Amino acid sequence: MTNVEKYTQAFVDAFSIDAETAMTLKFQQIPAWDSVGHMGLVAQIEEQFGIMMEPDDIVDLNSFDKGKEMLGAKYGVDFAS
Amino acid sequence: MEINPITIRTLSMLGQRGVFGLAFMDVAETDRNIIALSADLCNTSGLDRFRTKYPDRFFNVGIAEQNMVGVAAGLAAAGYVPFATTFANFAALRSCEQVRHFLGYMKENVKLVGFGAGFSFGMFGTTHYALEDVAVLRAINNLVILNPADGLEVLKATHAAAKINAPVYIRLSGVMNNPIIYKSDYVFEIGKAITLREGMDVSIITTGSMVDLALKAAALLEADGVSAEVVNMHTIKPLDVYAVEKACAKKLIVTVEEHSRIGGLGSAVAEVLTSNTRRPIQIILGTGDEYLHAGDFQHMLESHGLTALQIAKKISNTYKEVVK
User: Fold this and answer.
1) Percentages (nearest 5) of helix, strand, coil residues in chain B
2) Model confidence over B250-295: pLDDT tens digits?
3) Is residue A79 part of a domain?
4) A47/B9 CB distance under 8 A
5) Do A43 and B52 touch (CB under 8 A)?
6) Portion 19-78 of A in contact with B at CB < 8 A
């Protein structure tokens, strides 16, 4: 599984949605991504990449794109391969 | 809810209040008589998902905690299982007489959930701290008092409270990013303490948010040559008397709580020890008989000498005196 697939899977597992929906998702765009669901998503991402996200980053994660950018810049996740 | 590392991490990040909301959804799905009441703190109680899914099972009574307890008791008398939720200080202090009459005396099957206990509310200050709630509620007959140590234990305590036909006070403490005490599933039983760490010299009996710090203090003590066991007394009432009597085999008993040293867990343990002919010295660690300037959670712990290092130092000093 590529890192993009792993990242997308975190959203799919956290919110029970399909991959296509996941890729354009923003915070609170669906009922499942509320403040509670947010923590579940963070736990899924952490599990997928074996990382522990910083509290500020947990707050900043407000969209699929933002999370991807953050993981690449701060946690060394390579989405190119 | 399936218990796995992802769930446990999620529960940790949510903090005890957030976990209660999830746990309550879990519990409420098992019995349609389970209902929720809030004193105008629906979202703060983590109950927004429940209210959305079950609007006819959620009642916001407004900022009227005493009334909330009365309404909950009436609904309990009609066969419902109400979880009445508000800040811990309002639950215990403002509603005290209603809790005594309806939950203690009449034994109505109400689950009173007090969140933000101890110093959880940080900068909200002393008016919102709950440092006397256990002392007050422990004196009320027939009331079970639970004080979970981490997110998973909140889940367990909520399920356990729903199952028993008795009034229960669930005391939720700590802040978001609650430390994880239980890394996997375990058996939670009301009234049965859990030994989290074995030790030969000292028994640290603790509860709620202090469990994590007591474990850290025990690790520091080990480096200092003192072997300390740590007991999670998640049920403050009925107290696990056997666990306290077992601790009498140590040279020192220490109780640690995010609560006044007067009337809380320390007092409950002392009440057991006082009738025991063979007992070691007990030291009670908690907040002092004074209201200090407010600050954030960590600041308040430091002000009251309740960080892991401060706890370890106090225990070490006393232990050295005891064995001299």
Assistant:
1) 45, 20, 35
2) 999 999 999 999 999 999 999 999 999 889 999 999 999 999 999 9
3) no
4) yes
5) no
6) 31, 34-36, 39-40, 42-44, 46-47, 55, 58
Comparing CA positions, the residue from B171, B88, B138, B163 lying closest to residue B238 is B138
B214 and B286 Cβ atoms separated by less than 8 Å: no
A50 within some domain: yes
Contact A31 B9 (CB under 8 A): no
Kindly report whether the peptide bond that precedes residue B5 is cis, defined as omega within 30 degrees of 0: no
> Which residues form the domain of A38?
3-67
Residue B48: list chain A partners with CB under 8 A: 34
Q: How far is A13 from chain B (nearest CA, A)?
A: 11
Neighbour count for residue A65 (Cβ, 10 Å): 12
Q: Does residue A80 fall inside a structural domain? A: no
CATH of domain B5-173: 3.40.50.970
Asked whether residue A18 is assigned to any structural domain, the reply reads yes
Triad A13, A18, A22: Cα angle to 5°: 80
Cα distance between residue B220 and residue B161, in whole Å: 35
Regarding an ipTM greater than 0.90, the answer is no
pLDDT in tens, A30-79: 999 998 899 999 999 999 999 999 988 998 999 999 999 999 999 999 98
B2 near A CB under 8 A:
no
Number of domains in chain A: 1
Is B9 touching A (CB cutoff 8 A)?
Answer: yes
Q: What is the pLDDT of residues B70-123, one digit of tens each?
A: 999 999 999 999 999 999 999 999 999 999 999 999 999 999 999 999 999 888
Check residue B57 and give its pLDDT: 97
Q: Which of A31, A42, A47 sits opposite B13 (nearest CB)?
A: A42
Q: Do B10 and A46 touch (CB under 8 A)?
A: no
pLDDT of residue B177: 86
pTM (two decimals): 0.93
Is the pLDDT at A81 greater than 80? The verdict is no
The single-letter code of the amino acid at A24 is T
The CATH fold of domain B194-323: Rossmann fold (3.40.50)
Report the chain A residue with the minimal C-alpha distance to residue B13: A39
- Return residue ranges of chain B for CATH 3.40.50.970: 5-173
The CATH number that applies at residue A10 is: 1.10.1200.10
Determine whether the interchain pair B9/A34 forms a contact, defined as Cβ–Cβ distance below 8 Å. Answer: no
